[in-house]
Design brief:
alpha/beta, Aspartate Aminotransferase, domain 2, Aspartate Aminotransferase, domain 1, 3-stranded antiparallel β-sheet, 15 strands, 37% helix, globular, pyridoxal phosphate
């Protein structure tokens, strides 16, 4: 089965991992700090905190911003459920605002309309790698006195108005799952502009431990002493995985170029295919394309999905609207809340897109898809 996405691993990645396996540090060592520094080169210098996965990154981001019981988080329904569930885990109420019909990113006007006096965070999602409208969202967040989070699980390496993702919001989260733009196997990161929030994120990532002598409440206990002033979790990323991430970052520009080449070929080869809508791109965006999401018209999405998979082409649907999950339905969320997002979901189909996809394999995808739609 040709997958819709997969990792690209070469000998340099393997050598980076084996070098750490032969070292004294498997976790909580120098590769983690090095990976965080390397990531900051892609976020415009915004400091980064490496964590164990993308969901941990979201949980850490919300916790560091002080999200808690009674707070509201406004976000997009066109996302993996973790964007919302990580806020619910902290006791917040999630409000889903509708999306732009072209990019499927959070609609700034819809987000502004969803704000209340309890709003703590607006969380945008860079769907498929295309950055959300951060200038508009920043103005809305600043006017309301709330924080702006960028869920950039799809978009490390993307740029918005010539500024890198990671520098566009108060806090940005990344995912390094194997299907993403680079991988650490499992892993994630949080990029944070404010020094106080950065410290809170680093502590939350490591159980909430405080070790600085000047901050200890009982500093005379002994050299071994450490304290927990606010609870955190163990979201540390091992050095083995950080080393893989550092190696992958050295190829991120090449990954972006290859993905752009494949997207341009899809755009050209699928232009004019009846019953198919191609992904939109704003002139001011330079996406690191994570997905190639087409829209299958005329109610044929399920048919096309099943026929492509039967042919050995592993297309995917990204995503079921987050509030359709039974866990949200049980909390009182109902279908119909975000009609634009639901219309997008009804037609969306992600075609295979990853750096090692060959032109010949892509031609097969295009020919099979066009044949089904004739």
């Amino acid at each position: 089965m040709l997958p819709y996405g997969r990792q690209s691993i070469d000998e340099s990645d393997i050598e980076a991992v084996t070098r750490v396996l032969r070292s004294d540090w498997l976790t909580t060592g120098p590769e983690v700090a090095g990976f965080e520094d390397d990531l900051a080169a892609w976020t415009g210098g915004t400091p980064c905190v490496a964590v164990s996965n993308g969901t941990a990154a979201l949980h850490t981001a919300y916790a560091a911003l002080g999200v808690g019981r009674g707070d509201q988080v406004v976000t997009s329904p066109v996302t993996f459920v973790a964007t919302a569930s990580a806020a619910v885990a902290l006791g917040a109420t999630v409000t889903f605002a509708d999306v732009d019909p072209q990019t499927a990113n959070l609609d700034p006007e819809a987000a502004a309309s969803a704000l209340t006096g309890r709003t703590k965070v607006i969380a945008a999602v860079d769907y498929a790698g295309h950055p959300a409208e951060y200038d508009d969202l920043t103005k809305i967040a600043e006017s309301a006195g709330v924080s702006l989070v960028a869920d950039a699980a799809h978009s490390i390496g993307s740029r918005y108005r010539d500024r890198p993702v990671g520098s566009l919001a108060d806090v940005t989260t990344f995912s390094f799952f194997p299907t993403k733009n680079l991988t650490t196997g499992e892993g994630g990161a949080v990029a944070v502009r404010d020094a106080g929030v950065l410290t809170a994120a680093r502590r939350f990532r490591t159980h909430g431990l405080v070790r600085e002598p000047a901050l200890l409440r009982d500093p005379h206990e002994g050299g071994w002493h450490q304290e927990v002033h606010a609870f955190g979790l163990n979201y540390r990323l091992p050095d083995v995985l950080a080393a893989l991430g550092r190696s992958q970052l050295r190829r991120l520009a090449a990954f972006k170029a290859r993905r752009a080449h494949l997207v341009a070929r899809y755009d050209e080869l699928l232009a004019g295919v009846a019953g198919l809508g191609l992904p939109a791109r704003r002139d001011h965006a330079d996406p690191m394309w994570h997905l190639y999401p087409v829209r299958v018209r005329d109610g044929r999405r399920r048919e096309v999905y099943e026929r492509l998979r039967a042919a050995g082409i592993g297309v995917q649907v990204n995503f079921i609207p987050a509030y359709w999950h039974p866990a949200f339905a049980d909390l009182g969320y109902r279908r119909g809340m975000c009609p634009v997002a639901e219309a997008f979901y009804a037609e969306e189909l992600s075609l295979p897109l990853y750096p090692d996809l060959t032109d010949a394999e892509q031609d097969w995808v295009v020919e099979t898809l066009a044949g089904i739609l004739r």
